[in-house]
What we know:
2 helices; mainly alpha; transmembrane; lipid metabolism; 0% strand
Amino acid sequence: MDFRRVKEYFSWIYYQYQIISCCAVLEPWEQSMFNTILLTIFAMVVYTAYVFIPIHIRLAWEFFSKIYGLHTTISN
């Protein structure tokens, strides 16, 4: 795949994002504010998932291992 097609593909994806989120009708400063807020929320969700999902998986593993009689636990 050549560079031009990749660039056109990403331009098309960005255009679709602007149309779906109605950013195309916003002024430039409103677009930057909206994108900053959206990026911040996305970053917070990713960080929260990175921190808390392993803890919940470990707790679920310990819970179900006690129920089904598996006596191995994951060490910290």
